[in-house]
From TrEMBL:
<dbReference type="Pfam" id="PF07995">
    <property type="entry name" value="GSDH"/>
</dbReference>
<feature type="domain" description="Glucose/Sorbosone dehydrogenase">
    <location>
        <begin position="124"/>
        <end position="366"/>
    </location>
</feature>
<dbReference type="InterPro" id="IPR011041">
    <property type="entry name" value="Quinoprot_gluc/sorb_DH_b-prop"/>
</dbReference>
<dbReference type="InterPro" id="IPR012938">
    <property type="entry name" value="Glc/Sorbosone_DH"/>
</dbReference>
<protein>
    <submittedName>
        <fullName>HHIP-like protein 1</fullName>
    </submittedName>
</protein>
<dbReference type="InterPro" id="IPR011042">
    <property type="entry name" value="6-blade_b-propeller_TolB-like"/>
</dbReference>
Length: 381
């Protein structure tokens, strides 16, 4: 009997094998077996079940479970069998349709791409961001919501000491759905020479919730650690509610830092006379653009000279675009490999309320609701 089936969590069809697609049913602890295979497994190897289960939970719980089912083939296979004959193990490995061109990146007739996924890190707790050093070292950094940032080397190993540890400062809670915490990290676009990193996280100041954007310098003695004493607070914005914290930081091709804030929380953008998102005197619900290199006179940041609302009465000069609800992650278009067309365009996913989600193209000076809804991800009933 093959001992390979317990490791099907790496299968591209793991969601089927572990019955993880239906939120109303408990996820299986082992992949589902085909009926004939389960009968053979029971006949030849049933006493190995306890060994497979011993690391998955309470040893006593699984000891009691296996003792009650291993002598009864029907109960044994009720526990392990997956009724779907196409996706059960080992049929899923030999099904011609499921395995045709598996792993190849290609377009289907409608232009959609198949995407291959590869695990590069595990054992993380609520990872929220991953960035590349882009300095020739082939390192990458993974941030956790609790306030850790870890360094992974080119060989896949993780350095024991965190790149950054802000767990004592970050505002978070044990609540599973808490949107606060350490939300993003970005490296200076000239990181090889300007050895600085920028972070976005939630804090509590005199019992007032805020989002904080800070700058850290790389340690003079260790390229795999930031100097924790070097923190320079660039911007703080009061958060009237605990949700809709935004959370994206990135540098554009223009070298400026873009900050994506949420609208302040609750449903319907209720704060202020007409909410935050459409209010250009508020920094919440916005795409902000600042110059982190222009602070010679002690100011925390400079304002790019072509920011769209400079000089407009009542408008904050940091604002690049407005009408944002809760943009969580954004990406910059690398452009067509041959022509460069589209290079530098910025796309962001904005979290919807109860009708739809959207992906927006960020255009300087525009109100995002006017830009148009580029892509409907799903509709709720």
């Amino acid at each position: 009997m093959s001992a390979y089936f317990p490791f099907q969590e790496c299968s591209p069809y793991a969601a089927h094998l572990y019955d993880a697609e239906d939120a109303n049913t408990p996820m299986r602890v082992l992949p589902g077996l085909c009926g004939d295979y389960c009968s053979d497994y029971w006949l030849h190897c049933r006493y190995t079940l306890s060994l497979l289960l011993e690391d998955l939970g309470s040893p006593q719980h699984f000891a009691n479970l296996t003792a009650t089912i291993e002598e009864d083939r029907r109960r044994f296979c009720d526990f392990l069998e997956l009724k779907d004959k196409q996706y059960c193990y080992p049929n899923v490995l030999t099904d011609a349709e499921l395995n045709a061109n598996l792993g190849l990146v290609r377009e289907d007739p409608k232009g959609c791409l198949e995407v291959c996924l590869q695990e590069v890190a595990n054992g993380l707790r609520n990872p929220v961001a991953m960035i590349h050093a882009d300095d020739g070292s082939h390192r990458f950094f993974v941030a956790e919501q609790l306030g850790y940032v870890w360094v992974y080397l080119a060989n896949g190993s993780r350095i024991d000491r965190p790149f950054l540890n802000l767990t004592q400062a970050v505002l978070s809670s044990p609540w599973t759905g808490d949107e606060r915490g350490f939300l993003c990290i970005a490296l200076h676009p000239r990181f090889t020479t300007v050895r600085k990193a920028y972070v976005y996280y939630s804090v509590s100041v005199k019992k007032e919730e805020r989002i904080r954007i800070s700058e850290f310098s790389l340690s003079e003695h260790d390229d795999n650690q930031l100097d924790h004493s070097s923190e320079r607070t660039i911007l703080e914005v009061v958060e009237p509610a605990s949700n809709h914290n935004g959370g994206q930081l990135l540098f554009g091709h223009d070298g400026y830092l873009y900050i994506f804030t949420g609208d302040g929380g609750r449903a319907g953008d209720p704060f202020g006379k007409f909410g935050n998102s459409q209010n250009k005197s508020a920094l919440l619900g916005k795409v902000l653009r600042i110059d982190v290199d222009n602070n010679d006179e002690g100011v925390p940041y400079g304002i790019p000279s072509d920011n769209p609302f400079i000089g407009e009465q009542g408008a904050r000069p940091e604002i690049y675009a407005y009408g944002v609800r809760n943009m969580w992650r954004c990406s910059i278009d690398r452009g067509d490999p041959a022509t460069g067309a589209g290079r530098g365009r910025m796309f962001c996913g904005d979290v919807g309320q109860n009708k739809y989600e959207e992906i927006d193209l960020i255009i300087k000076g525009r109100r995002l609701q006017d830009i148009c809804l580029l892509f409907f991800l799903f509709f709720l009933p």
